[in-house]
Amino acid sequence: MPSHPAPILFTNARLIDPASGTEMRGGLLALNGAISELGPGVASAPEGARVIDCGGDVVAPGLIDMQAFVGEPGAEHRETIASATLSAAAGGVTTLVATSATDPAVDDPAVVDFVLRRARDTGRVRVLPMAALTKAREGKEMAELGLLKQAGAVAFFDGARSVKNALVMRRAMTYARDFGALVVHFTQDPDLGGGVMNEGDFALRLGLAGVPREAETVMLDRDLRLVALTGARYHAAIVTAALSLDALRRAKEAGLSVTCGTTINHLTLNENDIGDYRTFLKLRPPLRHEDERKQLVAALAEGLIDIIVSDHDPQDVETKRLPFAEAEFGAIGVETMLAAGLRLVHSGDVTLPRLLAAMSSRPAEILGLEQGRLRKGAPADLIRFDPDEPFVVDPDKLHSRCRNTPLDGARLQGVVKTTMVAGEIVHELPA
């Protein structure tokens, strides 16, 4: 990216700052990679500036997706940093937090450095690597957390693998606390969670092995007690069950340094969407009952759930076009995350500022980033979108290297027209 991109003035915009919950009509000037001015009276630009008339579209901070698989190193056939960031830019995501679930795992400072260099050379948006919490993500021995953090890891996460050994987890939390690092954990007991979809009547009808809600909450309960013991900063990567929400509410009320996220799929889809064994909806953790989905949405609206992630997980044809029980878990989602989330806004369940906060300002706060807010001096990582413009999801038009979207053919609203990173436009639809 150029060090000093040309000034850009957005006029006639609906400016939403999710960090403060404020909204106003006006203009915004991006100058030298940062927000220079914004507000109702901002209508003039320096000489040589480009002026974009937004026509009433929303201008907001770029989204921060705190859980995405970017493919490199080792799985370039599924995704690359170039293709993942192209998808992100098209979906309004300006920062991707990459998981450690690569081959080799991000458990060595050299691999952290590789991801950062590849992102700098080929990425269209910011890429921040999470490092593995344990060596090789095997849950047996703690990784070198201090060296990994020094190399540039923003958090520690073993991907969709739970650390089963409580002593290993306690040690990791203790060391992470001493380094001021964030522990992110996928909470699913591997012994209870061996099924392929949500446990219940629907799984019985399909003849598939189920995963009970308790598989998630048993592991989360253990983690929360270890947080109380160690004083670590802890983030539950994906919560999907009402039982987990109850545990998190108690932990937050007790003053523990605990946050949590859920995926856009668990907020907008339920187990019935699997229908006739649709493998693109085989997810880990599984889609839950509609009653659970509604409770997740309510928890998001009140702020109990802190963030929304795409859990972008590209899978190729060979691993998805199999019988449901044999197919791989995972779905792509970074490009459609905002539009899918706007379903909750249009239904009246969540306000637009709250949705944007869960996708931008709150992840920024958890990770200690400057992005995610509309204020003078903040990085000019911005998106412009029309929350009402309709479109139909066509997998062939998505930018990921894989096509395993659970929203194939879905009618959505919310078209991202402009995405800006550090004052430079990285995605723009023709006027």
UniProtKB/TrEMBL annotation:
<dbReference type="InterPro" id="IPR004722">
    <property type="entry name" value="DHOase"/>
</dbReference>
<dbReference type="InterPro" id="IPR011059">
    <property type="entry name" value="Metal-dep_hydrolase_composite"/>
</dbReference>
<dbReference type="Pfam" id="PF07969">
    <property type="entry name" value="Amidohydro_3"/>
</dbReference>
<dbReference type="Pfam" id="PF12890">
    <property type="entry name" value="DHOase"/>
</dbReference>
<keyword id="KW-0862">Zinc</keyword>
<dbReference type="InterPro" id="IPR024403">
    <property type="entry name" value="DHOase_cat"/>
</dbReference>
<dbReference type="GO" id="GO:0004038">
    <property type="term" value="F:allantoinase activity"/>
</dbReference>
<dbReference type="InterPro" id="IPR013108">
    <property type="entry name" value="Amidohydro_3"/>
</dbReference>
<feature type="domain" description="Dihydroorotase catalytic">
    <location>
        <begin position="56"/>
        <end position="240"/>
    </location>
</feature>
<protein>
    <submittedName>
        <fullName>Amidohydrolase family protein</fullName>
    </submittedName>
</protein>
<dbReference type="GO" id="GO:0005737">
    <property type="term" value="C:cytoplasm"/>
</dbReference>
<dbReference type="GO" id="GO:0006145">
    <property type="term" value="P:purine nucleobase catabolic process"/>
</dbReference>
<dbReference type="InterPro" id="IPR032466">
    <property type="entry name" value="Metal_Hydrolase"/>
</dbReference>
<dbReference type="GO" id="GO:0004151">
    <property type="term" value="F:dihydroorotase activity"/>
</dbReference>
<keyword id="KW-0378">Hydrolase</keyword>
<dbReference type="GO" id="GO:0006221">
    <property type="term" value="P:pyrimidine nucleotide biosynthetic process"/>
</dbReference>
<feature type="domain" description="Amidohydrolase 3">
    <location>
        <begin position="348"/>
        <end position="427"/>
    </location>
</feature>
<dbReference type="GO" id="GO:0046872">
    <property type="term" value="F:metal ion binding"/>
</dbReference>
<dbReference type="InterPro" id="IPR050138">
    <property type="entry name" value="DHOase/Allantoinase_Hydrolase"/>
</dbReference>
<keyword id="KW-0665">Pyrimidine biosynthesis</keyword>
